[in-house]
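Could someone model pyridoxal-5'-phosphate with this protein?
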Amino acid sequence: MSKKKLSTLALHAGYDYSKSLKSRAVPIYATTSFVFDSAQNGADLFAGKAEGFIYSRIHNPTTTVLEERLSAYHGGSAAMAVASGCASNALLFLGLADSGKKIVSSPHLYGSTFSFLSHNLKKFGVAVEFVDVNDEKALRAAIDKNTLMVYAESVGNPSGYILDIEKVSKISHGYNIPLVVDNTVTPPPLLNPFEYGADILTYSLTKLIGGHGTHIGGMIIEKGDFDWGANPVFTNYINAPDPTAEGTNFWEVYGKPFYKEGKSAVLINKLRGDVLRGIGATLSPFGGHEFLKGLETLNLRAIRQSESAKIIAEYLSKHHKIGWVHYSGLKDSPFYDLSQKYFPKTGPGAVFSFGLKGGYEAGVKFIDNLEVFSNLANILDARSLVIHPASTTHSQLKGKALLSAGVTEDLVRFSIGLEDVDDLIEAIDKALSII
Ligand code: PLP
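Reply:
Sure, complex below.
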């Protein structure tokens, strides 16, 4: 069968209705557990010698469709659904890293990810160094023999920093280290980081993939061609005997024979078998069903929201009460060239930020008088959203940390929805006229 295009994969991949009483929509398998055929079958399932479901903390047929669909949608080898975007990052960090190891990260991150990396991981003795990862010299200087991943967001939330995925992945691969990209803000059709060399993706499904602000969820997707055997740093986890699986070395059995064809699912198998199983931050089948619905229209929504954002960013950049606009699709943006490289057709997504000439006071007045937009702590709903990050989503960060995440006191963040763009501009115009 020819490789299907994105919009077809979003509707059909990973599901065979003939195996589910011919139900056209993916059913919600609302069950904790699955009945064994026999005592021997139970033992075989636990030993990984038989295929089938055991318990919904580890896997469930509804979320399995979502995992297989999103993996196919990105051209990956495997995926694992989890309870939130934060859980996708945290489980990945906790799974791969241990005491004495190091993560090199961009500082242009969502606030809770930044805090988890800077504070929580310290308790386990994991070192984290924040550097401008696009800066080759700084990146090379930060990587050492204990480094086991380079981590960044494709488009920093809310700084608008654009990761040069191709350049950074080439550098990290030179050290046999995977590049992990949180691609929450720009899922395909906007950007597929695998096409530029990323090895692992994390997502908050809560945002554009769900698209309707109804459920919290996350996903980790593995590309499948990374050689975990080439760097001794991974003998701590992936390339090591697993005590919970009778000493099996997962890399030898599930990775090494398959990675050259891009079909290794070793990372996802490992994470599912220990951190997901042990921590239990699982996505419910109800959540899985919500995200399957969102994914069906992602292709249409992402393009429309991104196009409207471009119109609004251009409008704001010409308004006399606006001090600055951080939208990489504008020619004066320091990220304009990278934006053209990674988002040549669609524009860099629907989230961007700006500051009013009147500073913080004017920003607060603007938000309080803005109609149609909702002032809340989320992005990439179908509805347009506004927030003041320094006092809300990024309030854990202070001083230098706030600035290095690209957040200033006067910054207002927009997430543009599916409303008619003329109505959005009218609402913005009205709120600006009041200040
Ligand atoms: N990653 C990014 C880039 C985000 O913007 C967010 C939330 O805004 C998250 C992760 C966390 O997602 P969740 O709220 O689903 O845990």
